[in-house]
């Protein structure tokens, strides 16, 4: 059976957009998304919060990710999480983002270990919002 999430993911796969699912109430995650938007000169990325209905519908296509509390990046039918998501996202951006690519030389278990420590303490260290960010009218097209 094809779920709405699978149809939605396939539709975006055909459009050649990378889809970033992020924690919409996390200040650190929101800041990361804002920096990506500012650097996305080719209008490649689309965004949805993990808490949103559309974010949850997309995750329905990937049941093993349903309870994941990590950034999720979808591109060409591939799923990237944690540090691999950040590195893959940075590969589409220019400027200082190129520096992040050095992370590929660090073994994944170490990168994800560091990611896990930051993720575990992100609300304590960076704060949390009461609700997900609402995009401005200019940015609305970038959000699912």
Describe the structure.
The chain is an alpha+beta fold and 144 residues long. The two termini are 23 Å apart. The protein has a single domain, classed as Glutaredoxin (3-Layer(aba) Sandwich), CATH 3.40.30. The protein has helices at residues 4-15, 27-39, 53-60, 82-90, 108-126, and strands at 18-22, 45-49, 72-75, 78-81. The model has no long low-confidence stretch (mean pLDDT 81). The chain is globular, with a radius of gyration of 15 Å. Helix 1 (4-15) crosses helix 3 (53-60). The longest helix is centred in the last third of the chain and has 19 residues, at 108-126. The chain has 5 helices and 4 strands. It is 42% helix and 12% strand. The chain has a 4-stranded mixed β-sheet, sandwiched between helices.
Task: Provide the fold topology.
Layout (H helix, E strand, L loop, with lengths): L3 H12 L2 E5 L4 H13 L5 E5 L3 H8 L11 E4 L2 E4 H9 L17 H19 L18
Parallel strand pairs: 1-2
Antiparallel strand pairs: 1-3, 3-4
Helix pairs in contact: 1-3
The computed structural class is alpha+beta
Distance separating the two termini: 23 Å
Taken in chain order, the helices and strands follow as HEHEHEEHH
Query: Which consecutive residue ranges, at least 5 long each, have pLDDT under 50?
Result: none
Mean of residue pLDDT? 81
Q: Looking across the biggest beta sheet, what order are the strands in?
A: 2-1-3-4
Shape: globular
Helix fraction, binned, reads 40-55%
Which CATH architecture? 3-Layer(aba) Sandwich
Largest sheet: 4 strands, mixed
User: How big is the Rg?
Assistant: 15 Å
CATH structural class: Alpha Beta
Query: Beta-strand level of the residues, as a percent range?
Result: 5-15%
Number of structurally distinct domains: 1
Number of helices: 5
CATH topology: Glutaredoxin
